[in-house]
């Protein structure tokens, strides 16, 4: 039997004909409607009939590629409607429970749009950003619980997705509630089918005029349902009639057939309380990847019948027709077979930090991580399937529709079996074993996710008797409770109707703690208030910096109009006396002489190839060891040119377009916590790779580790890796580097004019509030002297020449022991004592740090390794200009070390320190 025949009962019979004949209901509209929709009955005081979609994957098992394809196609139509620019600013909102997966698929088709779906599951600690009512539903209240309330506060188009557009009330309620708080100019309503009556059709246009916004409608098909007078009462009577038949046991313990065969009674209560607490720990408790862990469904897993309680409510496959539907149905108090199928766990290997769905929001970056992980997860499921399985169902769980849909779609691509997808539901629907009826069978089981509205029945339709060789039940870890594994739970119900049941658990996403253990009742970190201070989007060139806008986004605030510069000697006095922190002011920008500029260009010409090799090597190590799609976060400002070059290498060599940002870190003050909050809201922290130019003694490495630990404790966000990736690691402070040679990196030779015309970062209480990014200045007036693009282009131009060398160098580094020895720190401590400085902060090791001393501080001496060559030409020139002695030292672990004047006063400008006031 083909899937179409299963959906329609048998070829040529519409799966809505049973209801149409008995109630006089007509489906009028596009020719495709009867292929998309069937009809069923439910006990609901507001609407008796149910439109059952054949392509939604909720009630009717369907090919996952068909289900996903319909959503993606609608998303592409929305993209075409909006245009590329507006589509890039759009947010997609889906409706629980039925359209959560459809909405997510629409977001995929639309492009990089973030996705959020409403929910009926309150989450402790997450503030509501809104809510609305669905008037015709059996469960009306919808909550909006975005992790980042700013998700709904933008001005771009809001795309609302539901499975059907019947009266328009739900959409109007949603738009009215959101528009009052977050007004915008455009809304797009998306549905599989538009089934509004003529009277309802004009309401949307009237409403759009009322709120002064444009509202478009995109659907796959349209039509209307013609309902005869008194249809609600007739439908309720028909449901009651079938319930009564279902409640009459025969001597054989089954229900007498009613008409073409009645399904289970709608109101059969089971009287079983829902267990509280996790049964296990989801994937963490499962066996090795690709394997399974035995987990029985409960007592009585043999073939002998066992008495069941009043929750039975299932139909049995006839023993002489495997996979067919029985004529009777099991009712309250009747015995049913105990589970005869096996139940086992399969470890998915769900990617850390990726939400299980859109309940709290789902970003484009999280979508990329999921896409990369899907083939591996599908492979683990395939390996756990029984040999020779011909027909497999991937069964999702209520609002958890998208994750199982994508798993099913990926599985369908790699196995020969006929893969189908559907989900369980809260919606009670009458099951009738007739080819002209959309709901042929139903399984009834108690809720297993400790729902806020208390214990109740849940349902799985068209699963029993459908001939599945295996069912893969996919739940989130909040629903992996004792009730799921109980004798009357979902797993036992499935095991009674299929020989193999696999349980796959997706970790429930906990806002603000994406990598925390996924216990369903774990405490949540405090959530932001409903209207928090919104962090701005990154600054980009040409408005801030001379870099192209796609090269880097600066998580900084622009302080260009504030006077922050002070004479170098005054700054040094204030810093060393404890009267000010070095980050509270800026040095006057060094204006290089013609001779110094010539040295820069000569150094760049000499070192460009060596720089290109180091850039390639460190980028390859990051891609191999850290993340296949890392988020580069440079430590401003020295790390920024390096981050841009790494991004360029990833594009040159691998075609990757990596995100890149620059953030502020201040010695003694830590990293910008607001920048971390922005990064955590937009990317998986596990993908973030912090980038700097070079290491000196490793102070910033230690500063970053301490700051991230503090941030984890304060905000509950884990996953940021404190390991910095650097171009050069002469201090042996990190594992991720391109080289450990201490050589001239030309971007250290100059200040802002080789770093996008951006100043060093500023952190001062009167300028940077608790909800602000750290500050920096953009020196637009220095555009004529800017060498930033020239530096980047000179190094990038050497990429094709060093490809083979980079491959060899990367292979060598990956095989080497790169454990940090902190050799540089030990050398700095020794030098500090030998020269009577007694402060490691005044010892700046390495070519880059020494150059900074010469340009921004009051230097005392320069220690140079004996025999150092051209790498020190610019340092010698600066020393000559400032009257600073250069002392050659044997066995120096660095090419050079700069010493800051140890006891500085305003008059201490001499080279020998004699003017220092003791």
UniProtKB/TrEMBL annotation:
UniProt biased composition (Low complexity): 295-307, 322-339
Region (Disordered): 282-339, 514-542
Pfam families: PELOTA_1, PRTase_2, StiP, TRSP
Residue stretches making up the PELOTA RNA-binding domain: 822-901
GO MF annotation list: glycosyltransferase activity
Residue ranges occupied by any TRSP domain in the UniProt entry: 356-492
Coiled coil as UniProt keyword: no
Cysteine protease StiP N-terminal domain segment(s): 545-795
Signal peptide span: none
Keyword terms: Glycosyltransferase, Transferase
Domain Orotate phosphoribosyltransferase-like intervals: 36-223
Highest taxon of source: Bacteria
Protein name: Phosphoribosyltransferase
